[in-house]
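Action item from last week, closing it out:
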Amino acid sequence: NLLLLLLMGAKASTSLDSSSSSSKEGASDGGGQSGGGASSSKATNNDAAGVVGVSKSSSKSASTTSSLLSKEEMRSVREFLEEAKEVAKTAAKASKNGDAMKTLEKQLKTIDSYLQTRTYFATDRMQTEADVAMCKALNGVKDGVVEKYAEIKRFVELMRQTNDAGGLAPAVEEGGDDAAVEALGKRVEKMAVGGGEPGKISKGQAKKDAAKAAKKAAKEANKSNDGGGKKPTSGSFEIDLKDAEEGKVCTRFPPEPSGYLHIGHAKAALLNHYFARRYKGTLILRFDDTNPAKEKQDFVDNILKDCATLGLDYDKLTYTSDSFPQILKLGDTMMKEGKLYVDTTPVDKMREERMSKTESACRTQSVEENMKLWEEMKKGSAVGVECCVRIKINMQSDNGCMRDPVCFRCNIETPHHRTGDKYKVYPTYDFACPFVDAIEGVTHALRTSEYKDREEQYQFIQKAQGQREVNLWDYSRMNFTYTTLSKRKLQWFVDNKHAADWTDPRFPTVQGVVRRGMRIEALKEFILSQGASKNMNTMEWDKIWAVNKKLIAPETPMHVAVNDEGRVKVIFDNCEDGDKWVTKPKNPKNKELGVNVVLRKKEVWLEQEEALKLKEGEEATFTMWGNAIPKKIHVAEDGKTIETIDATLNPGGDVKSTKVKVNWLPAYDELVALELHDFGYLITKKQPEDGDDFKDLVNLDSDKVTMCHGDCNLRTYQLGQIVELKNKGFYIIDKIGVEDSTPYVLFNVPGTGGKVA
């Protein structure tokens, strides 16, 4: 069975004609991201060197690909190569043999089922030789048979889009045969790439797949907890937890599903993960879903997706709502014991009384009256919804958190995303968390230092509930300049159309920073460098983006883009060879990335800023070509703007001797339309304060858009690919142009150049 081969690591290869029930079972365990075309795969063409026509030759690319794969993945590649051969053989016989056609349809059905939860065959991280071989085999199926299989169609189209007709184009190296280079250039400039924006995760999709993907990826990365082979960081998590015993430590990461995870949550997740693994214990991912007014299933799904992105290999997935029956029963018990009371005081007056340390008139009412009102709350009656339940602690305490905090509230307007309308009353986080921590076996609850005042409250409530004591340990929250990490305020930006959604590239969410070009490895490295310090500080964004640049720079291909506005045409009077295609390295410092095809024409485009560097009679270098001498510079009526330049190529000129070097593009219709976004901060105040009105702090000009055109090689990339546009900075592809009139949308990666809005 195709799927069991991958999942179980079998050494022998078998044919694809397995039962459909077995294939479905295998697909459900396959893990990885759901296939969704270019938008569902974040792998880049360069990750799979050898399958893109403009990459290295096949013999060299195979070794490059091998170095990026684990032994298990390489075994899968070999197995799928054999399976591709079987499909090709069956397809060749199918048109003339009825039995062969039945066998082929069984094979295709199994492949289609497998691809429902995968983007590629051997590994979802990248394309491999196995994908190219399978694509060729599927292309060999006659009479439109594959048209019946949606996932196979999607896979073949993706391979065509990203590999120049499915990887069938000849590979060309730098300085290759002129005819082959020209043929490849013609194909690249005419490539039709399917587009679209990054897909929204469907309801329940992350719940189904993300945990498995995270566990598989994270366990590989976390096999060694001693940091062997890793560079030391300036910070350290090497501290001891109180009463921690190896094999018995249990931590929990408890996000509320009222938004997506942001980088502050990332620190909490990684800290809890670190201590659970350090002590060979247990990590619980628990959704603190006690407030249906703010919570949605979409937030649950995307938090699971974020956990997968962070590589959080948790051991248990739970919900506070799982414990609602026990918590309500606990409310009954504590009410009868006189520890809780129902308060009918209006909200504003209750707030004033707490500030002035004044006891509520309801604090001394009888247990019978409390129980009567409590039952009204559970029914969600007109009387009940006006009440709340508070716990008796100490209204005279200097710690405001100890002044009889609220434990239960009614909500009859918003159905709970999991329990629907079953409950009318819900526990607060302050009451539910100590209870659930205790019953789930948590030994150490990690909390940011902003909860320091609540530690006394947590311990009091836990003791009043009759539960065992859980150790508390606090750490500093990550704060950044010109940034809010408040989910309530982030939601305000979305609701008021100052941000598109929670994935907005200006947001500090995990999905936001990843969409803007942040590597998760960089995020992790930065967080680890902060260590487990409890000191509060506000950090500059440039520090984390500097870490990111070090990771992406060596593997980023270089390209040329020229702004549409003010571009200048240069006309060479001695371009005797006419149009000529040549190849140049994608990145001179990393030849393994392959080559770009470059078209040299009689007429080329320069940016206005580049053209202004040129002077008549002064030799300059045109990168990727050679030297040229401007003969006549034609200036507009304003006396400043250059319109055209007449120049003469100087093939024998020394490129090392020139002071001016300019980037250019051929002046023809096959350039790629680009829409570049350079983002600034969403707010204008460096360190926002609690009392600030965000309406006064919004940066209404935080997105500067530049229209330009880039070289044709940009058509070979998928969503999520980072490229360097010379003299502009690094950009990540966020949207692929579907037609010539629809531009590619690219976002500037901070810390790499570009304009600041």
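Closing note: Confidence is low (pLDDT under 50) at residues 1-67, 164-171, 193-211, 223-234.
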